[in-house]
Specification:
diguanylate cyclase activity; 5-stranded mixed β-sheet; Tumour Suppressor Smad4; alpha+beta; 7-stranded mixed β-sheet; EC 2.7.7.65; 2 domains; Alpha-Beta Plaits; about 300 residues
């Protein structure tokens, strides 16, 4: 069933229902410029806020045109408006947790089509291209297959791929491996540096590991601080070597959030099959999960196959 599109204008952002016919449309290329709610996942996910030429204040306060009921957001957090250069600019309003564009903290600066705008712990995507409608529907599709925080595939897509690849492995008796890895002492990162730092750690880790992934592999967020990689045509030894590359890449460079530097390591468990015996996606994930927790019990920051 096609998902209904609910469009909200800046003037009506705090209303429950909006009539699309009553919108005041600015002229020019910013006529449909919008913010799409990406994260955290909630009933608002995929919600589109048309901002156009009207200044929009984002914050937790009910007085804000874009009211965000999240404790990480200040009462009056930031403002988006058209600058002298004819582009939308975002200005931080002295918020507690900061305003970020593409993970870089900013006090004031322009927004470009496709930018990610984070206020507190909440992430929006800014769209202002020549075909915002098409971009919006593409973004909605992305939300069905990608994890909104890290940008890698989500668990739902992982299971679809794993079902297909396990069936292929058994049918043709070809090797298949799944690496499951999790951040060591992730709770300490959250407790010491804050949950926003924790989210940024997940994003940075995903970016590092993405650089190691081949085109025929699938990298996904499995849940919480755990990630998975599906490796087709990959036997045990080669999978172990890849798991070590992941572990080393994460450990090599300390993570940084707002001038705070801290080490991060991962434990890796790898489930494998040669395709000779029937198996299921659940079984290969169970094996990988058991080996991941064995790696943690053995001292963490290691690979177990």
């Amino acid at each position: 069933m096609a998902r209904a599109t609910r469009v909200i204008t800046a003037a009506d952002l705090t209303r429950t229902e909006v009539s699309e016919q009553s919108m005041d449309r600015p002229s020019g290329h910013l006529v449909n410029a919008s913010l799409i709610y990406i994260y955290p996942k909630s009933f608002q996910s995929g919600q589109r806020y048309v901002i156009g030429s009207t200044p929009v204040t984002l914050g937790r306060g009910s007085e804000c045109k874009l009211s965000i009921p999240d404790t990480s957001v200040s009462r009056f957090h930031s403002r988006v408006e058209i600058g002298a250069d004819g582009r939308h600019h975002v200005t931080d309003l002295g918020s507690t947790n900061g305003t970020f564009v593409n993970n870089t903290r900013t006090t004031e600066g322009p927004l470009a089509d496709g930018d990610y705008l984070r206020v507190g712990n909440c992430i929006f995507r800014y769209l202002s291209g020549g075909n915002v409608e098409a971009e919006y529907h593409e973004e909605i599709y992305r939300l069905t297959v990608l994890d909104p925080l890290t940008g890698v595939f989500n668990r739902r897509y992982l299971m679809e791929i794993l079902n297909r690849e396990v069936a292929r492995s058994v049918r043709y008796r070809r090797p298949l491996a799944v690496a499951l890895f999790g951040i060591d002492f992730f709770k300490v990162v959250n407790d010491t540096h804050g949950h926003i730092a924790g989210d940024m750690t997940l994003r940075e880790l995903a970016a590092r590991v993405s650089g190691l992934i081949r085109t025929d592999e699938v990298f996904a967020r499995y849940g919480g601080e755990e990630f998975a990689v599906v490796m087709t045509e990959t036997a045990r030894e080669r999978a172990a070597a890849f798991g070590e590359r992941i572990r080393a890449a994460v450990e090599a460079i300390p993570f940084t959030f707002e001038a705070q530097t801290y080490p991060v390591t991962v434990s890796v468990g790898i489930g494998t099959t040669d395709g000779a015996e029937p198996t299921t996606p659940e079984e290969i994930l169970r094996r990988a999960d058991e080996l991941l927790y064995q790696a943690k019990r053995l001292g963490r920051n290691r690979v177990v196959v």
